[in-house]
Design goal:
Layout: E1 6-9, H1 13-30, H2 40-50, E2 56-63, E3 66-78, E4 87-97, H3 106-120, E5 126-128, H4 135-143
Helix pairs in contact: 1-2
Length: about 160
Amino acid sequence: MEADMQIIQTKDFEAIAHLNKTVQDVHAELYPDHFKEYNYETIKEFFKSIIDRPNYIFLILENDQQNIGYAWIEIKEYAENPFKKAYKSINILQLSINSSEQNKGYGSQLMAKINEIAELNKIGKIELDYWHNNGAAKDFYRKHGYKTYREFVFKDL
């Protein structure tokens, strides 16, 4: 990993839309019945419409002044109800590193930054989900200590 690596919080929806291509391509390949092919214009407009939501944080990982990855996280507050206790969490909605830069430790750097944000906000839980056939995601998150505590199942009719 280069010494020029930095992670910045951003509102640059255009950069996020460009960086989204890697993760969107993986999803579209693994689950073509669910995911659309990457389309920069429509994805850019989507990110533009949500970039200022106060509970969303967008991080860009730069190396040598090149954007090579990003994370989209959400700070969530769950209210107490008759069944569950209240809690706060950070939900990792997307985390992606450009294909050519994977397996170089950049994803781990983004995870460390997310942990730092959780600690700064006194949030004791980070949650995420990934699609079952995404073995790379499963291996990555397990390497970082994530455990399954809930399963989402479906049945096609």
